[in-house]
Protein 1
Amino acid sequence: MKQLEEQAPNRRSFLKTGMLAAGVATAGVGMLGRGVSAFGEEREERSITKGDIAILQLLLAAEIIETDLWRQYRELGGIEAIGGPSQGYITALEQLDGDMPQYISDNTDDEISHVAFLHAYLKSKGQRPINLDKFRNLQGSAAPGAKKIGRLTNLMQLSVDTSWWTRYRSKENLDLGAKFPQAVPSLKVGRHPAIPTSQADFNDANHIQAIANTAGFHFAFIEQAGTSLYATLSQRVSSREVLRITISIGGSEIMHFQVWHDKAGNAVALTDGSLTFQNLTVNQPESLQANLIMPEPCDFIDGLPECSIIRPTGAGHLDAVGAINGFIADGLFIGQPNEFIQLLLHLAHEADEARPEL
Ligand SMILES: [Fe+2]
Ligand SMILES: [Fe+2]
């Protein structure tokens, strides 16, 4: 992982060793320009820490993964696909909410912007951003409307963890050892497509609705992971600017999650093979009730009152390794070589080891 070891040039060491001129040439005007105040005084500016770089590289990898999967959803279910050959999928998604195609396209745009920003930020700090292009070899959907290009993620063999649903309706907290049941137990068992895999999937209205329902819960699964991941890693950054980045992009993930949380509850009750969705909008206990989408106040910090919060945000759950392991268990990387998994886990371990340097 050579690129992780390449540190940005350190401004102070240039000054110390009299290599300022060389520093200007290699570091670029922007970097040094920020080191001088309006009064012309030298302002001490730390270069980005190794920990911050590790966090940003992992987040960039996560955003590249998100972008890859959201692009696949957009090709078949986004606003651009309306009236096209995947209309049957769109009609099924619209049972969850009439605005689903717009939301899918917008979520995709947001992920693309997260990738572009983090990529550019790392470059501006003299780092080589992580690149996963050589792993874009998975065959995607054969359904009409899907581009025939290599993919990083597999949306056709998912085991979706829906425990986030009951977690956010509970007064207990995963960070404090609580465990939560699945909202849709059969979705966690076996492998299910969240996009139509071929033309044949459109021929059975019940089956295409099951695929759209699966997507509905998968959207929220992805974004709840982003919600916790950014909040967890934000506690480990050193630079105020990097903190600003992680809490600001993290906030966007929270907004995505909340929208998808609301829509998943409208999944149509049905049975399709081994998969069963029940109507969560009527006659449900509070642990499943569809419209309880605000985070229930829960245990947070020992000895203090319950609090409405995003969760988990502690180590060992949806930290970097936890999020990547969650994506692996989800089936997102089925078909990828071990090298790809190991690269992601390496990046995740490096990010989780970061500690704030004051
Ligand atoms: Fe994102
Ligand atoms: Fe996201």
Note: Residues 1-45 have pLDDT under 50 and may be disordered.
Protein 2
Amino acid sequence: MKAASFDYQRPATLHAALRLLADSAGGAKLMGGGQSLGPMLNLRLTRPKQVIDVSALGELRQVTQAGDAIRIGAAVTHAEIEDGVHALLRGSVLQSVAGGIAYRAIRNRGTVGGSLAHADPAADWVLVACALAAEVEIASQAGTRRVPMDRFMHGAYTTALAEGEVLAALWVPKLGPDAHWGYFKFCRKTGEFAEASCAAVFDPARKLARVVIGALDGAPQALPALAAQVARSGAMPARAAIEAAVSASAPGKDAIDRKLLVAAVERCLAQVLMLESVQ
Ligand SMILES: Cc1cc2nc3c(=O)[nH]c(=O)nc-3n(C[C@H](O)[C@H](O)[C@H](O)COP(=O)(O)OP(=O)(O)OC[C@H]3O[C@@H](n4cnc5c(N)ncnc54)[C@H](O)[C@@H]3O)c2cc1C
């Protein structure tokens, strides 16, 4: 099956993209890398009159620092982060995670903004962005607004983005020298979406202590009591405590899913605490 016909636009500026979007009155779809939108078009799950390609917009292609935060333009690709193209992201949790997203061909085109806007519960960026307590910058003809990641993803494939809005950037904190992070996901095979995942970030300088689980039915869920315990003790919590935290934040999971999530949390925290392995 092939996509139904549509008008394709590749505006030169964000301003022009926002005007096209407003003029379309809901009939247009934005395109980042097209790695999720392409299949949806081909399967005719979406039939926009117009596709507005934002992947080359200069305003969305940069990584810059402002104060103690880093602004990652929405059209920065997974591969660029993996390859360390942007010096500000070298050695970061984002660089470490980028290389494990899908396959290289998808990473070459897929963008941070497209992934966040798509809001697949099993996606990597939504989970890491939650763990970093990041914020999403959203642009429209009315101006820009910033939404904390905890409030951006409302559920599976549902976000705070409204008609006429473009996800312009992701703002992540610049972590201090004593920060530790971990990331672990179970995938049936390399390149597949996660079946259970966990990201954790601890940064004493920024008073950041976050443990977040993903690949749930909806948005990633934080485990705040567990994070506080790890920050306080600097030790791996008892398995019973991890099980209780997972059950509280992701109720209704069957025994196998719960076990995968608990193991993902343990392995993620083992990275944070720099333990050799977890039994
Ligand atoms: C086989 C396969 C395996 C994959 N495995 C993984 C994986 O393991 N982990 C993972 O995280 N992801 C995975 N993905 C998804 C991949 O990371 C995609 O790149 C990502 O989901 C979408 O990014 P994109 O830039 O291609 O967005 P697009 O496909 O272009 O767009 C996706 C959606 O976001 C909207 N959109 C795009 N850009 C913007 C913007 N700037 N503002 C507002 N809305 C926008 C589009 O309208 C569309 O609705 C996989 C994809 C495939 C096909």
Note: Residues 29-37, 54, 74, 101-102, 106, 109-111, 113-115, 117-118, 120, 123-125, 161, 166-167, 193 surround flavin-adenine dinucleotide (CB under 6 Å).
